[in-house]
Design brief:
Blueprint: E1 2-8, E2 11-17, H1 26-41, E3 47-52, H2 77-86, E4 91-95, E5 98-100, H3 102-109, E6 112-115, E7 120-122, H4 136-144, H5 146-155, E8 159-160, H6 161-166, E9 175-176, H7 181-192, H8 211-225, H9 231-244, H10 247-262, H11 265-280, E10 298-301, H12 305-316, E11 321-324, H13 328-347, H14 353-361, E12 363-366, E13 377-380, H15 386-399, E14 405-408, H16 415-420, E15 428-433, E16 442-446, H17 453-465, E17 469-473, H18 479-498, H19 502-512, H20 518-525, H21 527-540, H22 549-555, E18 568-569, E19 578-579, H23 581-593, H24 603-623, H25 630-641, H26 650-657, H27 659-670, H28 684-691
Helix pairs in contact: 1-2, 2-3, 4-5, 4-9, 5-9, 8-9, 9-10, 11-25, 12-13, 18-24, 19-24, 26-27
The protein binds nicotinamide-adenine-dinucleotide.
Length: 697
């Protein structure tokens, strides 16, 4: 990792070279500063071109240095930008492919910028709960205007270079170079070699004719769209500073906001998630260079709720899919749902008609297993009954080609047992999608005792292709996510028994930041599903205490949104949860039958009983090796269960609380005679970490 230096035809070329995206590490910055100095000292050099090696100009800060002293060590990003501005010879940034964050801030310090078409230009710091910290908020409005710059900084989204280069009045790019960028940049640098004074972005004027009104509007919008995150509104503040303050004062103010945000729990959580997501694809005993199997065609058994959604993932990624069902009607129904989903995307303008046709063109169906012979991956999504799974896995095993991966989408059944229904358990793996499977980002990849390493590597790779975040789980009842949700559900039931209403619990949990409280979630997922699981699970564990309210609810047929009534009532076509007096009376009657006098329970108790029930179960899961790392569990809960991202997941939240406090709270909950004292015994891992002064991180 360095910045390469060469002189071609009286032009010095500084090439940022730090794969994969030329992150601006300390070593790169040092070499850049040396190069710039050398070029300025060399009388034969007339101008300087800065570019990036390989597939980026620069993606910004080097994430490997994140949080380490090296990230801020001199020369820091601000210093090399200032040094670039002060160069006596013109500096031309030659931008291609990716120019983001610190990369764009560096380019804005150059005297000129030329760019290739199709490059992604962004200041994405807001996605990590930050604002740009090296002049981005002060310089970008000067070249793009206040509104365009604010929208780029607040959203963090990339904009194609051609679009920006074509914008009327823009001063970001001096030239759009078709063809060889470096040649174009050298020619441009020669043209400008003798032009003085050197233009600086800092010297440009910036303002807005309706400044106060505009910034108020932008701030309100940012706050409304990112309720739990301070950074988007701070981005607006920083741009407003750029219009009101002298350049260097605005720069200092930006720095101050940046540093303050760095220490917010929201930014810490988002940075934690950023790393957690990258770490999730790494499996301790599966080397990263493990050869993967080719997946050119996918077979899916079952065209129900899950089968259809799973199929869409592969169609969206351009992978042909064949779906097997028992009857043609089931196929017609399932394909109707898929087509309907795509149609509504077309109507909303999110999908072009020709793309829809292309995707539907990749989809075929069959009633015969023989037609699955050429599939590289076959996923069963049939009824959740072990007998049905046995029949289906046997039939797949009989026809699948050697080396095909056989996956099950079971949510609760034993993947080892399912693997044993075939003669090739090494090729069997769980692919646990979440409903709606075409929307939810999470995929639990369930590793059976005999699952081959290259099968895991292949499934992790294909999950990336279909834009899922995959997490490895070992085999246990419910895998990572649903095993934890069982304890959460039990606490929800106890809270009703002790005096809460469903809406009180949901409100508290939603205020904490969950997308949905447990009872609204039950209504959405279908209360009958949990009922069936409880019958099986608590049939096997008769001593496990749980509240019977949910069973009583199901006995009344209140299965949730799909039947218009559950914990709440629903009006057709709407998702609003309307409290129902009969349900509350049923809860009260059940409470009475248990001889419980209701008490007022605080939101704090509600939230912590629910969240820490997840944490304690998760600690057992970690200890048993079902999950490889705590951050995987955070990913599962944020992408699969609506845990608030600004809290960074249950494990990150527990770390923030401090495990000592976590254990104290658990011990307190254990003293409640209506709760489950045995469950609240802090998991041995928690005790061990406290003793060692450590956290889950
Ligand atoms: P579903 O009832 O909607 O669909 C199952 C489909 O499988 C039906 O269309 C049925 O005709 C077909 N089928 C049943 N037996 C078959 C056989 N022998 N051969 C061919 N087709 C057969 O069920 P679902 O909700 O899609 O669930 C499917 C699987 O996915 C289950 O294992 C379930 O546990 C799991 N899962 C469901 C969810 C969810 O939220 N619904 C989430 C994750 C995993």
């Amino acid at each position: 990792m360095t910045t390469r230096y060469e002189v071609r035809d009286s032009i010095a070329i500084l090439t940022l070279d730090n794969a994969p995206v030329n992150g601006l590490s300390h070593a790169v910055r040092v070499a850049y500063a040396e190069g710039l100095e050398k070029a300025n000292a060399d009388a034969s050099v007339k101008a300087i071109v800065v570019t990036g090696a390989g597939k980026a100009f620069s993606g910004g800060a080097d994430i490997k240095e994140f949080g380490s002293p090296k990230a801020l060590a001199e020369p820091n990003l601000g210093s090399i930008i200032r040094m670039t501005e002060m160069s006596n010879k013109p500096v031309v940034a030659a931008i291609h492919t990716t120019c983001m964050g610190g990369g764009l801030e560096l380019a804005l310090g150059c005297h000129y910028r030329v760019v290739s078409p199709g490059a992604n230009i962004a200041l994405p710091e807001v996605k990590l709960g930050l604002i740009p910290g090296a002049g981005g908020t002060v310089r970008l409005p000067r070249v793009l205007g206040v509104e365009a710059a604010t929208s780029m900084i607040v959203s963090g989204e990339p904009v194609p270079s051609d679009m920006l280069a074509m914008a009327p009045g823009q001063k970001l790019f001096d030239k759009l170079v078709q063809g060889d960028l470096l040649e174009g940049a050298i020619a441009f640098a020669k043209e400008k070699a003798d032009v003085r004074p050197l233009p600086l972005v800092r010297d440009l004027k910036v303002g807005h004719p309706e400044a106060d009104g505009y910034f108020q509007f932008a701030r309100n919008t940012a706050k409304a769209m990112a309720k739990n995150f301070p950074a988007p509104a701070k981005c607006v503040d920083a741009v407003q500073n750029a219009t009101k303050m002298k350049f260097d004062d605005a720069l200092a103010a930006e720095r101050e906001i940046f540093v303050n945000l760095m220490f917010t729990p929201e930014s810490k959580s988002l940075r934690h998630l950023f790393f957690a997501e990258r770490a999730a694809s790494k499996i301790p005993d599966v080397p990263e260079d493990t050869k993967t199997r080719d997946i050119k065609k996918v077979g899916i058994i079952g065209a129900g709720t899950m089968g259809g959604g799973i199929a869409m993932n592969f169609l969206n990624a351009g992978v042909p899919v064949i779906v097997l069902e028992m009857k043609q009607e089931a196929i017609d129904k399932g394909f109707g749902v898929i087509k309907g989903n795509y149609d509504s995307q077309v109507k909303k303008g999110k999908l072009k008609q020709d793309k829809l046709d292309q995707r539907m063109g990749l989809l075929s169906s069959t009633l015969s297993y023989d037609d699955l012979k050429d599939c590289d991956l076959i996923i069963e999504a049939v009824f959740e009954e072990i007998g049905v799974k046995e029949k289906v896995m046997g039939a797949i095993d009989a026809v699948a080609k050697p080396g095909a991966i056989l996956a099950t989408n079971t949510s609760t059944l034993d993947v080892n047992k399912i693997a044993s229904f075939t003669k090739r358990p090494q090729d069997v793996v769980g692919m646990h999608f979440f409903s709606p499977a075409n929307v939810m980002k999470l995929l639990e990849v369930v590793r059976g005792e005999k699952t081959a390493k290259d099968v895991l590597a292949t499934v992790m790779a294909i999950s990336k292709k279909i834009k899922k975040t995959a997490v490895i789980s070992g085999v246990c009842d419910g895998f990572i996510g649903n095993r934890m949700i069982e304890q959460y559900g039990r606490q929800g039931g106890f809270l009703l028994d002790e005096g809460c209403t469903p809406q009180q619990v949901d409100r508290a949990v939603e205020k904490f930041g969950f997308a949905m409280g447990p009872f609204r979630m039950g209504d959405l997922a279908g209360n009958d599903i949990g009922w069936a699981i409880r019958k099986r699970r608590y049939g096997e564990k008769p001593n496990m205490r749980y509240s019977k309210t949910a069973d009583l609810l199901c006995e009344q047929g209140r299965f949730g949104q799909k039947v218009g009534k559950g914990w709440y009532d629903y009006v057709p076509g709407k998702r609003d949860a309307i409290p129902n007096a009969d349900v509350e009376a049923m809860i009260a009657k059940h409470r009475e039958s248990l001889g419980i006098t209701p008490r007022k329970i605080s939101d704090d108790e509600i939230v912590h009983r629910l969240v820490l029930s997840l944490v304690n179960e998760a600690a057992h899961i970690l200890e048993e090796g079902i999950a490889n790392k705590a951050s995987d569990i955070d990913i599962v809960y944020i992408y699969g269960y609506g845990f608030p991202p600004h809290r960074g997941g249950p494990m990150n939240y527990a770390n923030e609380l401090g495990l000592f406090t976590v254990a104290q709270m658990m011990k307190k909950f254990a003293q409640n005679p209506l709760d489950d004292a045995k469950f609240w015994e802090p998991a041995p891992l928690i005790k061990k970490l406290i003793a060692e002064g450590k956290s889950f991180a």
